[in-house]
Amino acid sequence: MKKKFHERLKKNLRPPDLAKEIGRDIASIDVGNYLKSIHTQKEKLFLRSFNAEDVSGLLEQAHLFSHLDGLGYADVKVMIDIDDSGVNYLKLFHKSSNPENLLFDLRLSESTYIPDKVYFDGDMNEAYDMIVIEWLSSQDPHRGFSSDRPQLPGQNLPGLGILRHCFEIMCTIGQRLNKDGFLDIPDHIHGAIMYAKEFKFFDPAHEGVLRALMRDLKRYSLSDISWGIITRTIIEKYKNEPQPYDPSEQVYYISPRLRRYFLSKKYKRVFRKYYRRKHFRFDYDEMLERRKKILETRTMNDL
């Protein structure tokens, strides 16, 4: 499980509002000293709120440690950090903090997400207080790929099967920090499908296409579907054209107001339109041939 942050998202993100954060008139404080104190605090706390012990408690509460213990990783080290750009790091290592022992790498930032007005009725527009997933990876350094766990495009090592634990951690953090939700942009279609257990595309058309694709191709593996997109062998029937994957914002909503957006009549109407209209076929044998040719010159890690 791995994703990178996309530049395309930055046009819709703004830094958290300082006046809102401190809860008083910005003109009444020494902004320089305030920012300096926040910077010092960020060096010590994950998302300005949790120290390493607090984070360990969240992971324990989500049964992540017990899951890792069942995989043979009983001695897990927790490391938190924050860089100068405000990106928060949470890393888990087995026994020691050597790169080869890395199990989990999560990088988060806080931003205000301002969606395009097209998603709302009339002149209405919203700004949401979000936690952005800038990077997420989990890897099992002591196991290899198999027919039951094939390597996915862009994947270096097998995953740890911890996504449901991550969702629980996100929910707890979001509620404690009074956030509207989490936001990410999966690089690959297989990432979007895995996230779809709890996340929805903010764009209802994208959500309708994804759910229709999952409906029509449910007998295929994640690896097959991902390769189908890469090799352009998943065909949208009406236009008889390859279906592209256009990475865009997927959201895990927490607050009631963000939940209302996804339950709105407009969102549901557009979603149903695309879900009912889109139908797909998979030229599976052609995918196998094209995949073979691609791997003659590229590795799975490059995709």
Walk me through what this model shows:
Helices cover 36% and strands 20% of the residues. The chain is α+β, with helices and mostly antiparallel strands and 303 residues long. The strands form two sheets. Strands 1, 2, 3, 4, 5, 6, 7, 8 and 11 form a nine-stranded mixed beta sheet that branches. A three-stranded antiparallel beta sheet has the order 10-9-12. The radius of gyration is 21 Å and the shape is globular. The protein starts with a strand and ends in a 9-residue tail after the last helix.
Number of strands: 12
Biggest sheet character: 9 strands, mixed
- What count of helical segments does DSSP give? 11
The Rg value, from CA coordinates, equals: 21 Å
- Helical content, roughly? 25-40%
Mean pLDDT: 87
Percent of residues in beta strands:
15-25%
List the helices and strands and how they pair.
Layout: E1 2-4, E2 13-14, H1 18-22, H2 31-42, H3 52-61, H4 64-70, E3 76-82, E4 88-94, E5 102-113, E6 128-138, H5 163-176, E7 181-184, H6 189-195, E8 200-201, H7 204-216, H8 222-230, E9 234-236, E10 241-242, E11 250-253, H9 256-262, H10 265-277, E12 280-282, H11 284-294
Parallel strand pairs: 6-7
Antiparallel strand pairs: 1-6, 2-5, 3-4, 4-5, 5-6, 7-11, 8-11, 9-10, 9-12
Please give a quick description of this structure.
The protein has 303 residues and is α+β, with helices and mostly antiparallel strands.
